[in-house]
Amino acid sequence: MTPAALADLVRSSAVQILTARGTDLAVLPEKVTIERPRNPEHGDYATNLALQVAKKAGMAPREFADALAAALTATDGIDVAEVAGPGFLNLRLAADAQGEQVRQVLAAGEGYGLGDALAGRNINLEFVSANPTGPIHLGGTRWAAVGDALGRVLSAQGASVTREYYFNDAGAQIDRFVRSLIAAAKG
Predict the structure, then answer these.
(1) Predicted pLDDT at 14
(2) What DSSP letter does each residue of 88-100 carry, written as one string?
(3) From the first residue on, what is the mean pLDDT of each consecutive set of 10 residues in the chain (187 residues)?
(4) What residue spans define the domains of the chain?
């Protein structure tokens, strides 16, 4: 289960709880935040949705978190949903939930991750330029790889990406470099 799928699951569970109470769903944020806890003992993921929504919904945060925990524990893919503190919700995924994600990746093959979120967008991606007058270093190589990877991610989401990797071979530093070469050649 991806963090995005987990966020959707938490939100849909909250919708069910609020609907059953006759609460206006406008109190729910459009996107639910799911984060990795700093301490791994607190679970695989955590959310503070109950703290954000409960008072607007006329409930105590911990009461709303308890209802969310019960709903999520009854869902496939969630092993444990625990309420912590004033209303944080710590979640542990079932072992088969991660296996299912791997199965989906393998089944999709090269098509995994393709989408159309950026369809119709034209993006000009400039990579960092190498300095031809200075020493070559790992930074130039690293940023070329990062630029290429970013271009691939953007393309996979439907964008038309133009990649430009400029060599910095113009300007005052090149003029000085040329003069230094001429001076060196003349002795």
Answers:
(1) 95
(2) EEEEEE-HHHHHH
(3) 91 94 90 92 93 91 94 91 93 87 91 94 84 71 85 96 74 78 89
(4) 3-96, 114-186
Conformational region of residue 76, where left means phi above 0, alpha means psi within -120 to 50, and beta covers everything else: beta
Whether the CB-CB separation of 164 and 127 falls below 8 Å is answered with yes
Six token digits for residue 43: 């679970």
Amino acid (1-letter code) at residue 87? G
Residue 122, strand partner residues: 160
Which CATH homologous superfamily contains domain 3-96? Answer: Arginyl tRNA synthetase N-terminal domain (3.30.1360.70)
**What would the pLDDT profile of 36-80 be if each residue is shown by its tens digit?**
999 988 999 999 999 999 999 999 999 999 999 999 999 888 999
pLDDT computed for residue 130 by the predictor:
67
**Tell me, what amino acid is at 158?**
G
Output the six-digit token pair for 84. 């912590």
Round to whole Å and give the CA distance between 3 and 9: 10
